[in-house]
Amino acid sequence: MEAGSALDRTPLKGFKDFYQYAGSTRVIAGRNLLESTGFEFQKEGARRVFMVTDGVIRGTGLVERVEAGVTDGGLELAGIFDDVPQDSSTEVCDRCAAAAKEAGADSFLAVGGGSVMDTAKVADAVFTHGGDARDQEGFFLMPRADDGMGRPLEIAPLACIPTTAGTGSEVSMAAVIKVPDEKVKIEIADFPLFPRLAILDPDSTRTLPQAVAAATGMDAMTHAIEGYVSVDWSPHQDARSLQALRMIRDNLERAVQRGEEDEEARGNMLIAANLAITIALGSVHAMSHPAGAQFGVPHGVANAIHLPHVIRHNAQGSPDIADRYRDIGEVFDVTERDIGDALADHLTELIGRLGLPTRLSQVGVPEDGIPALVEGATGDGTTLLNPREMSEEDYAELYRRAL
Ligand SMILES: [Fe+2]
Predict the structure, then answer these.
(1) Which of 52, 139, 184, 307 is the most exposed place for a label (fewest CB within 10 A)?
(2) Three-state SS for 23?
(3) DSSP state of 134
């Protein structure tokens, strides 16, 4: 066994000394749910709804359908913010919060992908507690009762209708947002950020372009795999990760290739993305965050590129790590002894069939960008959760292999 293996850090099996698990979002899933948006959101305390979305979604007609669903349920639409870019920033969140205040809103409804939902979460925190988006950074640092020792203070009701499958942000307590001047992505996570309601209706991914369905599906795949091998694993999340992987195995290619005509595959991918999401991630996300912040590589594309390389590297870290990948391999019928290589090969083939890039050089990352990426990955919070300890040299080597 190599020095610095995960066995020295934390066991990946047995009874853990500690973990916590929470998931407080009410999820409704099924067909024709958009029309009940208002009816359902009213039960979460919403009256004057501020919708957050982006220009592309606004052009699809989905916003009008959701708007009708809001008003049919007896709620008012206080305003719409449709200016969220593909990779949202602290500046956008601050503008969104100010617009919601100006509109006299009392609740937020995100209709979009990860960037839209994360913007709504951070804007909601700023809207409720004041300050600005940059101040929100950190894990479990939101205001609490009893001089900061008690229950976290709630933020305004937030509902999410994801239009990708996906980031799973609609059922997570985390948001990742870019700080433009600093070229970094900051993470914000605390219990109040769990949306109160997530509406999973395959109608909302009907017009999703193939390339986006592929990339966001690989983000869900990465959450399921990283969550299962993370040092922050738990039996609760294991159950979710493995079922997510089965559903992704059965539905991702169908959803990407048949798109509009395969409602079942699209619906199942929305649910799989929900099951997969966790904040217990690892080095794939650590490598992808700086690739997004520094070179604008879309999050799911970056994960698809990095995932096979991290699996190969991690699986050699210890027999226990390899065993965890073996469980994942079973889902895909990959049972070779050298599980790291076999699973990585299997996924690389799948990523190719999905039509996604497999190298960083294909998506605008130059070789001389590697040192800054290494610095970003080393400093990323998810590095600490990777099952194998990662040095700067390890990251430099993995980026070179991915180039
Ligand atoms: Fe992700």
Answers:
(1) 139
(2) coil
(3) G
Among 293, 282, 378, 287, residue whose Cα is nearest residue 321: 282
**286 C-alpha to ligand 1 centroid (Å):** 10
Q: Cα(227) to centroid of ligand 1, in Å?
A: 11
Tell me how far the alpha carbon of residue 36 lies from the centroid of ligand 1, in angstroms.
Answer: 29
- For ligand 1, the distance from its centroid to the CA atom of residue 382, given in whole angstroms, is 11
Say what the pLDDT of residue 166 is: 86
Q: Residues 226-271: pLDDT tens digits?
A: 999 999 999 999 999 999 999 999 999 999 999 999 999 999 999 9
Distance 129 CA to ligand 1 centre (A): 27
350-387 pLDDT, tens per residue?
Answer: 999 999 999 999 999 999 999 999 999 999 989 999 99
- In angstroms, rounded to a whole number, what is the distance separating the alpha carbons of residues 118 and 46? 19
What's residue 9's pLDDT?
A: 64
**Ligand 1 centroid to 165 CA: how many Å?**
11
Query: 148: helix, coil or strand?
Result: coil
Output the CA 149–ligand 1 centroid distance in Å: 30
The pLDDT of residue 5 is above 80: no
Distance between Cα 319 and ligand 1 center (Å): 26
What lies within 8 Å, CB to CB, of 58 at 6+ separation is 80, 82
Tens digit of each residue's pLDDT (9 = 90 or more) over 105-143: 999 999 999 999 999 999 999 999 999 999 999 999 999
Ligand 1 centroid–CA 104 distance in Å is: 33
282 DSSP assignment: -
What is the CA(226)–ligand 1 centre distance, in A?
10
